[in-house]
Amino acid sequence: SQQGEEDPQALSIQEGENATMNCSYKTSINNLQWYRQNSGRGLVHLILIRSNEREKHSGRLRVTLDTSKKSSSLLITASRAADTASYFCATDASGNTGKLIFGQGTTLQVKP
Amino acid sequence: GAVVSQHPSWVICKSGTSVKIECRSLDFQATTMFWYRQFPKQSLMLMATSNEGSKATYEQGVEKDKFLINHASLTLSTLTVTSAHPEDSSFYICSNGPAGTQYFGPGTRLLVL
Q: How far apart, in whole angstroms, are the C-alpha atoms of residue B4 and residue A79?
């Protein structure tokens, strides 16, 4: 079953612009993770934010988590054409077993 | 991070045949691995949890007799799609890793004709 929703479903921006993707989930979580998937490929882990954290940075990525609203956002700053991919949030509600429930994903296109 | 491989990377088979997909953890001893399925333009859906030395745990709606999982060692889990049908055509991905950080295999694309 899907944990939640992501919006937008698709996003198209110009290189250099920022991209923001949102994720909502339904149950209590231990952590929330963001993954990237290039077309037809496996997933690459981007960042993990724990339930007691509110914001986390990694390079050009900024993730926020609002457990009261059961939502998270991923911001990619100064986007590049190489950032074109699908981005998924995933929640671990299972006590850190690694079992993940994925959101529906956002397809990002960055135009050069 | 942990390296996870899958074999084959793609497979085409006739309806009614069985297909085995391997997931190997190359540098991490995985007592637990996870199998996901992804249909075109959709997200990943968790199918089952593969447990080393014991039975797999299947998610609701996933037929355990159709998707046989074997996790005989700490580095290998296999998923066998039995009596495959065209609706089983999908991208199958495994994952494993330490708690909180999952590493995904490159996926296996299955096309059932």
A: 28
Q: How far apart are CA B71 and CA B53, in angstroms?
A: 6
Nearest to residue A53, comparing CAs of A69, A44, A66, A39? A66
> Is there a contact between B71 and B83 (Cβ–Cβ < 8 Å)?
no
Put simply, whether B62 touches A (Cβ < 8 Å) is no
Residue owning tokens 């700490």? B74
Mean pLDDT, residues B43-47:
94
pLDDT digits 0-9 by tens, A21-41? 999 999 888 899 999 999 878
Is residue B107 within 8 A of residue B39, CB to CB? The reply is: no
Average pLDDT over residues A55-79: 97
Pairing of strands A55-58, A106-111: unpaired
Q: Does A45 touch chain B (CB under 8 A)?
A: yes
